[in-house]
Write a structure and sequence with these properties.
- This protein is of the alpha/beta class.
- It is built from eight helices and ten strands.
- The protein has helices at residues 49-56, 79-89, 105-111, 120-133, 149-161, 179-196, 207-210, 231-236; strands at residues 5-18, 21-34, 38-42, 64-69, 72-73, 90-94, 167-171, 199-204, 215-220, 223-229.
- The strands form two sheets. A six-stranded mixed sheet has the order 6-7-8-3-9-10, sandwiched between helices. A four-stranded antiparallel sheet has the order 2-1-4-5, covered by helices on one side.
- Helix 4 crosses helix 5 (149-161) and helix 5 (149-161) packs parallel to helix 6.
- It is globular.
């Protein structure tokens, strides 16, 4: 059975000016992702994986080529519509957590909903549900300084998931975590992927993450060098 393709990238090129010339971060990259995938862009630093993730998330635009996300072309998308796409449909998880230190766990997760047209009661229900997903209802009033690295990343996951996005983009989400916490974080994300059919796309060079991924897309020097199903990842989730 064919899976609905919700991300389509066609011959994406991304160039950055360097001195009197330019650096080609992505070179004719074409990819598609289906709904509910648990996939990873893998490769060493400088391979282009984070740049590609940023284009999918409409945080950056390609120099050439076409990017279509959830039926909307990102080429020429204005700032307002780009922000609307991110706010309503795409969640982000970064290695640095990006939690607001003066806010509680509850407030950090709620923050992303303040841009939505939701009542206070609707926001509260969504935040409590998201914190229950990641097992942090007992930390609702804690500030980030009181949390461990693993707990902070779980708050970041709850924040990305609270609006029930269709796509979650995770850039090196376990880089600052030990093996036990990494394992817990990845299990949490796979559970959300299974239960909510959210498409997860990782950018990583962490072997711990790769073991969980169902699809591995390897990049080097801005090009795709392989795209394969990962049977280790299919076993890890069982």
């Amino acid at each position: 059975m064919d899976t609905e393709k919700i991300i389509k990238l066609d011959r994406i090129v991304k160039k950055f000016p360097v001195g009197s010339g330019y650096f080609t971060a992505l070179n004719e990259v074409s990819l598609e992702f289906g709904r509910g995938e648990f996939a990873g862009l893998v490769g060493p630093s400088g391979s282009g994986k984070t740049t590609l993730l940023n284009i999918i998330g409409s945080l950056d635009t390609p120099t050439e080529g076409d990017a279509n996300v959830l039926g909307k072309s990102l080429i020429g998308l204005n700032h307002k519509d780009s922000a609307k796409l991110r706010n309503q449909h795409i969640g982000f998880i970064f290695q640095t957590y990006n939690l607001l230190p003066v806010y509680t766990v509850y407030e950090n997760v709620e923050f992303t909903l303040l841009l939505q047209k939701m009542s206070a009661d609707q926001r509260r229900k969504a935040v409590l549900e998201a914190l229950e997903w990641v097992g942090l209802t007992d930390k609702i009033n804690s500030k980030p300084a009181m949390l461990s690295g693993g707990e902070s990343q779980r708050v970041a996951i709850a924040r990305s998931m609270v609006k029930k996005p269709e796509i979650v983009l995770a850039d090196e989400p376990t880089a600052n975590l030990d093996s036990e916490n990494s394992h817990h974080i990845l299990q949490t994300m796979k559970k959300l992927n299974d239960e909510l059919k959210v498409t997860f796309i990782f950018a990583t060079h962490d072997e711990k993450v790769m073991k969980y991924l169902e699809r591995l897309i390897s990049l080097a020097d801005g090009k795709i060098i392989s795209d394969r199903m990962n049977h280790t990842g299919l076993k890890e989730q069982k």
